[in-house]
Amino acid sequence: MNKMPFDKYRAFTPISLPDRQWPNRAVTTAPIWCSVDLRDGNQALIEPMSPDAKRRMFELLLEMGFKEIEVGFPAASQTDFDFLRLLIDEKLIPDDVTIQVLTQSREHLIRRTFEAIKGARKAIVHLYNSTSELQRRVVFGADREAVTGIAVTGTKLIRDLADQMTGTEVVFQYSPESFTGTELDYAVEITEAVMAAWGPTPEKRMIVNLPATVEMATPNIYADQIEWFCRHIKDRRNIIVSIHPHNDRGTGVAAAELALMAGGERIEGTLFGNGERTGNVDVVTMAMNLMTQGVDPELRLSDINRIIEVSQECTQIPVHPRHPYAGSLVFTAFSGSHQDAIKKGLSALRQSGANFWEVPYLPVDPADLGRSYEAVIRINSQSGKGGIAYLLEQEFGLILPRALQVEFAQVVQRRADASGKELSAAEIWKHFEEEFLKADHPVSLISHKFEHHGENEDGVMTATVENGVSRHTVKGRGNGPIDAFIDGLKAIGIKVQLVDYHEHAVGRGANAKAVAYVEITGRDGTLSGVGMDEDIVAASLKAVISAINRRERR
Ligand SMILES: CC(=O)SCCNC(=O)CCNC(=O)[C@H](O)C(C)(C)COP(=O)(O)OP(=O)(O)OC[C@H]1O[C@@H](n2cnc3c(N)ncnc32)[C@H](O)[C@@H]1OP(=O)(O)O
Ligand SMILES: CC(C)C(=O)C(=O)O
Ligand SMILES: [Mg+2]
């Protein structure tokens, strides 16, 4: 067998931090969220968002409760510049929301960025330059000192322009881009040089954003890098440490969570993880992960379908059906044992009245995201009795006794196996009707009358039935209508016994019906039957007939 060319790659060198503290910490409050959908997300799209799409995305982010939003790279394109001007000139930025703009450390780009933010109440100016050993060598052809010079020169220019600006509060953010590939001592060195040029204080902190521009190692290593940085940087209290993970190894969320444990206070990410290559960290998943630990996520996700819809329209990128919390299939169970446990869990929760969520296989209440329970259980050939019974109860109000659940599950299984497809609720109902409610021949009930005179006496059932050949009127005795009916049927050669009986009402008011379930035993085993009628006695007799006819069909 040809081996994969694994020896082309080198393992990431672990960080030496034997007394690391982050594994003992937990995240107990939401971070400061900063959406970078309109910048990092947008720059990674096949077709960047139109002005109209940007505006819809911006409004969605506001609705969700983001207080910091990177709205673009205004010096890079006229579209981004114009969008920023639109937000400012049309006064579309709420007072409690701060916009953020990205720029490279190049004079003409920084000056243009300041033109773009004129008139904003407050803006975060985000300066970045790449600092990794690889990028210094191959992209910039510069040593550490020269790269530090790029960052410091840009910072000083931003300081001057911010000082000259009136009416706009400028918050400064610096990113040593490609931080995960940067030697930690150098990341600290360049950031301290930038801090010295900016002059943050505990009252006026600057943001230091430590991006996993490329996710290069396991999440614990990113956490080590963040803790190392936080422990070594001078004047830690003068900065807000921001985390900006990408998802190259598919562990962006895990890396972000561990990085928060390691000292991060702010997260830059996007909805559903859109962004360069495999994406930015997904803030929806992160926020929901917090919520399921009992922590206020400080983002509103209660109408997840709308968030998905707007996001998909703006980015033209579909949300995967199995995307955590949001995918169309994540609140759906197809397999029998999962369905059974969910059904039991939901009913136990209803009965206990507990005010915390606890349902097997459902880590979150779909209703909290505006999803409904109806989609929870779907039926195919992997499904079992529990799920089918749940669906019949939710959709049609039928509460099937256990024996009937078992029998009907076999029917459904056969149908699903034959079609190889999922069965809709309507199809399940059709099969239920065919199997039980329409099992009204060869034996059928034409009329019946039950008379019961004193409490200690048997009642008498007079019923007219057809047996497929001729019509008969039979009389039988028993302590209830079903017993008496079964007794009467002996006269035309139908010899069965009642094993179990259940009934309940379906629907309300004028549309209410009675449904009866029986289990009868006869010459060749036990079978269930179901009857529905406005009248409970008629429903019970129909249920007996249904069981008899099912036996005949066999
Ligand atoms: C990790 C990230 O997501 S970073 C953000 C990336 N986003 C984007 O790049 C989207 C917007 N960018 C653009 O549209 C363009 O890059 C522009 C308009 C900003 C600049 O365009 P140009 O000047 O034509 O080209 P380009 O971006 O290729 O510039 C590369 C030059 O800038 C230098 N450079 C790159 N980044 C930086 C930086 N952060 N600070 C200073 N110089 C930088 C490069 O070394 C290179 O220099 P060279 O021309 O001497 O080789
Ligand atoms: C601009 C920076 C922060 C970035 O997007 C990255 O490094 O991924
Ligand atoms: Mg990025």
Automatic annotation (TrEMBL):
<dbReference type="Pfam" id="PF08502">
    <property type="entry name" value="LeuA_dimer"/>
</dbReference>
<feature type="binding site">
    <location>
        <position position="246"/>
    </location>
    <ligand>
        <name>Mg(2+)</name>
    </ligand>
</feature>
<dbReference type="GO" id="GO:0009098">
    <property type="term" value="P:L-leucine biosynthetic process"/>
</dbReference>
<keyword id="KW-0479">Metal-binding</keyword>
<protein>
    <recommendedName>
        <fullName>2-isopropylmalate synthase</fullName>
        <ecNumber>2.3.3.13</ecNumber>
    </recommendedName>
</protein>
<feature type="binding site">
    <location>
        <position position="244"/>
    </location>
    <ligand>
        <name>Mg(2+)</name>
    </ligand>
</feature>
<dbReference type="InterPro" id="IPR000891">
    <property type="entry name" value="PYR_CT"/>
</dbReference>
<comment type="function">
    <text>Catalyzes the condensation of the acetyl group of acetyl-CoA with 3-methyl-2-oxobutanoate (2-ketoisovalerate) to form 3-carboxy-3-hydroxy-4-methylpentanoate (2-isopropylmalate).</text>
</comment>
<keyword id="KW-0460">Magnesium</keyword>
<keyword id="KW-0963">Cytoplasm</keyword>
<dbReference type="GO" id="GO:0000287">
    <property type="term" value="F:magnesium ion binding"/>
</dbReference>
<dbReference type="InterPro" id="IPR002034">
    <property type="entry name" value="AIPM/Hcit_synth_CS"/>
</dbReference>
<feature type="binding site">
    <location>
        <position position="40"/>
    </location>
    <ligand>
        <name>Mg(2+)</name>
    </ligand>
</feature>
<dbReference type="InterPro" id="IPR036230">
    <property type="entry name" value="LeuA_allosteric_dom_sf"/>
</dbReference>
<feature type="region of interest" description="Regulatory domain">
    <location>
        <begin position="439"/>
        <end position="554"/>
    </location>
</feature>
<dbReference type="InterPro" id="IPR005668">
    <property type="entry name" value="IPM_Synthase"/>
</dbReference>
<comment type="pathway">
    <text>Amino-acid biosynthesis; L-leucine biosynthesis; L-leucine from 3-methyl-2-oxobutanoate: step 1/4.</text>
</comment>
<dbReference type="InterPro" id="IPR013709">
    <property type="entry name" value="2-isopropylmalate_synth_dimer"/>
</dbReference>
<feature type="domain" description="Pyruvate carboxyltransferase">
    <location>
        <begin position="31"/>
        <end position="305"/>
    </location>
</feature>
<dbReference type="GO" id="GO:0003985">
    <property type="term" value="F:acetyl-CoA C-acetyltransferase activity"/>
</dbReference>
<dbReference type="GO" id="GO:0003852">
    <property type="term" value="F:2-isopropylmalate synthase activity"/>
</dbReference>
<dbReference type="InterPro" id="IPR054692">
    <property type="entry name" value="LeuA-like_post-cat"/>
</dbReference>
<dbReference type="InterPro" id="IPR039371">
    <property type="entry name" value="LeuA_N_DRE-TIM"/>
</dbReference>
<feature type="binding site">
    <location>
        <position position="280"/>
    </location>
    <ligand>
        <name>Mg(2+)</name>
    </ligand>
</feature>
<dbReference type="GO" id="GO:0005737">
    <property type="term" value="C:cytoplasm"/>
</dbReference>
<comment type="subunit">
    <text>Homodimer.</text>
</comment>
<dbReference type="InterPro" id="IPR013785">
    <property type="entry name" value="Aldolase_TIM"/>
</dbReference>
<keyword id="KW-0432">Leucine biosynthesis</keyword>
<keyword id="KW-0808">Transferase</keyword>
<comment type="similarity">
    <text>Belongs to the alpha-IPM synthase/homocitrate synthase family. LeuA type 2 subfamily.</text>
</comment>
<keyword id="KW-0100">Branched-chain amino acid biosynthesis</keyword>
<dbReference type="Pfam" id="PF00682">
    <property type="entry name" value="HMGL-like"/>
</dbReference>
<keyword id="KW-0028">Amino-acid biosynthesis</keyword>
<dbReference type="Pfam" id="PF22615">
    <property type="entry name" value="IPMS_D2"/>
</dbReference>
